[in-house]
Write a structure and sequence with these properties.
6-stranded mixed sheet, binds magnesium ion, 18 helices, Rossmann fold, 538 residues, alpha/beta, 18 strands, 20% strand, binds adenosine-5'-triphosphate
């Protein structure tokens, strides 16, 4: 069970949650929603005990599992195999190491004492279900899209998405009584996502999950806590609703609609009466009538309802791309390996001006590696590629690796301006502002931004680059639904070339790619809607 009592959470001097009370019991499945930067992750940190509340307290009972929005497995564990890391969720890894030590001791000195110690330990392990636990861990990991051969690899050799899955598998395997998951479906393909939703549906503990993923919110949860903080200066309020997220949205939209209409009717009536007063008020004969009308106006003003603010929307527009040659990029024979067998080889493709290439492939097929090669972040083992005449490419990295976390937003975006181009502070702030990053926020350390805000900063930085080719690796992760729509609309109208990795099916459908590249085989085909079924899988 998890309980918040009069809980207030403060971040960077702002109250993002004020005096919240809620209880999450075993079998409760609670979705936490709210715009980017509302304070969801900050609330989670307090619920999980990583940060102190400003006021009030958190009561927890039982074991506690927490997946952060941006889980980084400690680099000190890089040499550890992934399956060991998953098993460490229940401390089983230590037992395995202990038994292995006893076995070696027994082999070296096979006396009665050593044989006895090994036999006893091994038997205990077997009886307590140790071997079963390992196969359970493996099947959970497989559900999340980590096949057994990847699980036996050291953590250090896994891709960012795979590390995230390993961490998620460890947390689920631990079997905690309370689970707090921050955006667990980021980087999951459709199979892993439906496995996770199935797991969460039958999970017997208390679940809190932060998500912008409407499928998850509609299928795996039974209650919504909306962290409502419409604007940066507002104090956050927790609005609770029983039911799915779609039901909640409808109920809220109805409320907003009803109150807005009422407010509009009232305003109109007040304006009408005021008009009458203004016309007759000056005439002595009508003064008494005007006076009584003024009273009526005052009464109406007193009863006036305030229409709730609907979610603020952002409007994004990309600058026109500079002109370039007919061919944007030509690649041939690209190959990448990380020590072992190649992740992909013999990748050939070309792209013309304004074309959009969708890169498809299952997890680990090398989509991010390919984009990093094209972005110049790493080199291909074999093969080469060439940009066309006057092509400049901008790169959006999946894990925001190219943000300088100890610098402000303004410094980051200023550093993204290509040499020879002069963009003043007003213009740069304007670009950040399009994404809702305005006011004092532009001076904040980028490392402290929320997940969605980091995505927005990275996208704003792409806009100053005067690019006519964008390499986009999962650009819609972390974005709240309104921001996702704004970014999608901006890109749909943008006439430059795109090379795109995404499993966001609506995003891909709207962008209407011209070509697909299938990884790791390297087949290139024209895009049609039939490919959309594959998008969610990649
Ligand atoms: N040290 C800090 N100084 C100033 N502001 C901060 C600091 N740390 C966090 N913030 C701000 O607090 C707000 C809440 O952040 P939080 O990560 O909790 O948001 P979130 O609701 O999880 O958003 P998202 O949906 O984007 O993940 C954000 O606007 C963030 O920029
Ligand atoms: Mg967050």
């Amino acid at each position: 069970m998890l309980q918040a009592q009069g809980l207030s959470v403060e971040v960077g001097g702002r109250l993002v949650v004020e005096r919240a009370d809620f209880t999450v019991m075993a079998r409760d499945k609670v979705g936490i929603v709210g715009r980017n930067g509302a304070g969801k992750t900050s609330l989670f940190k307090v619920l999980g005990g990583a940060d102190e509340p400003k006021e009030g307290k958190v009561v927890r009972s039982g074991g506690f599992g927490y997946l952060s929005q941006d889980p980084r497995i400690d680099a000190a564990l890089d040499a550890r195999s992934s399956v060991t890391h998953v098993l460490s969720g229940r401390g089983i890894d230590d037992e395995i190491v202990r038994i292995e030590k006893l076995r070696i001791a027994m082999e070296e000195t096979p006396d009665e004492r050593n044989v006895g110690r090994y036999t006893r330990a091994e038997e205990e392990f077997r009886i307590s279900g140790g071997y079963g636990a390992e196969s359970e861990a493996r099947s959970m990991a497989a559900g999340l899209g980590l096949p057994t051969d990847r699980l036996d690899m050291p953590i250090g050799t896994l891709s960012g998405g795979e590390r995230r899955r390993v961490e998620l598998a460890r947390i689920l395997f631990a079997g905690s009584d309370v689970l707090c998951l921050d955006e667990p479906t980021n980087h999951l393909d459709v199979d892993a996502k439906s496995w996770l939703m199935g797991f969460l549906r039958q999970y017997k503990g208390a679940l809190l999950v932060i998500s912008h993923d409407l499928d998850l919110l509609d299928e795996a949860i039974t209650r919504v806590l909306h962290l409502d903080r419409p604007a940066e200066d507002d104090v956050g309020e927790i609005v609770e609703y029983r039911g799915t997220y779609s039901q909640y949205l409808r109920a809220r939209a109805d409320d907003e609609h009803r109150l807005k209409r009422k407010a509009a009717v009232q305003s109109k009536e007040i304006a009408r009466l005021q008009g009458v007063v203004d016309r007759f008020g000056a005439k002595a004969t009508k003064a008494a009538m005007a006076h009584s009308m003024e009273k009526r106006i005052a009464r109406l003003e007193g009863q006036r309802v305030r229409a709730p603010e609907s979610a603020r929307t952002i409007a994004v527009r990309f600058p026109d791309p500079p002109p370039c040659g007919q061919t944007v990029i030509e690649a041939s024979g690209l190959c990448k390996a990380y020590g072992g067998p190649p992740v992909f080889e013999d990748i050939d493709f070309d792209l013309g001006r304004g074309e959009r290439l969708l890169v498809l492939g299952l997890n680990g097929a090398g989509k991010t590696s390919l984009l990093r090669i094209l972005a110049g972040e790493t080199t291909a083992g074999l093969g080469h590629f060439e940009f066309g005449y006057q092509v400049t490419a901008g790169y959006y990295a999946q894990e925001h690796d190219n943000l300088r976390t100890s610098e402000s937003l303004l410094t980051n975006i200023r550093d993204a301006v290509p040499p020879g181009i002069d963009l003043g502070e007003t213009r740069l702030r304007g670009l950040l502002g399009m994404f809702g990053l305005s006011g004092e926020k532009v001076f904040q350390d980028s490392g402290t931004l929320s997940g969605g805000e980091k995505t927005k900063l990275a996208l704003a930085m792409l806009m100053v680059g005067r690019n006519n080719l964008l390499l986009l690796d999962e650009p819609t992760n972390n974005l709240d639904p309104a921001s996702r729509r704004a970014v999608t609309n901006a890109l749909v109208d943008w006439p430059a070339a795109l090379i795109l990795v995404s499993h966001d099916i609506d995003f891909v459908r709207q962008l209407a790619p011209t070509k697909v590249l299938l990884m790791p085989d390297g087949d290139v085909d024209y895009f049609s809607d039939e490919w959309l079924d594959l998008v969610e899988m990649s």
